[in-house]
Design goal:
This protein has 115 residues and is α+β, with helices and mostly antiparallel strands. The chain has a single domain, classed as Transcriptional coactivator/pterin dehydratase (Gyrase A, domain 2), CATH 3.30.1360. It is built from three helices and four strands, in the order H-E-E-H-E-E-H. The protein has a four-stranded antiparallel β-sheet, with helices on one face. Helix 2 crosses helix 3. The longest helix is centred in the middle third of the chain and has 18 residues.
């Protein structure tokens, strides 16, 4: 299992703006706590990960799990998917960049989706 440093046990805090987005250095430090498949965008605004499952049913289970996390944490990703593949992107719109919430939710996905 990846080193989540208890990130997956943390709770998102509401972000209505008024804070600075994470710096690239901060983002890279959080990224180290996630599954190695998460990618930080060059502009430091998005983290994303591609998932591949065996079939559509497994993919929909993954998406439902992400929806449950999103609802529980009140922090929502962008999800695009096909028959058995999905890409999940986290970005905090209120601050036009990344927040700790993005990494908390990504870590929760890693915790539940062990692949």
């Amino acid at each position: 299992m990846e080193n989540h440093d208890n990130l997956s046990k943390r709770k998102c805090v509401p972000c209505e703006g008024g804070i600075e987005p994470l710096t690239r250095e901060q983002s890279l430090n959080f990224l180290k706590k996630l599954n190695k498949d998460w990618i930080l965008s060059k502009d430091n605004k998005i983290i994303s990960r591609e998932f591949k499952t065996n079939n559509h049913y497994e993919l929909m289970s993954l998406i439902n799990m992400v929806a449950w996390i999103s609802n529980t944490e009140d922090h929502h990703p962008e999800i695009t998917f096909t028959y058995n593949q999905a890409e999940i992107k986290y970005y905090t719109y209120a601050i036009d960049g990344l927040s700790e919430n993005d990494f908390i939710c990504a870590s929760k996905i890693d915790y539940f989706f062990k692949n």
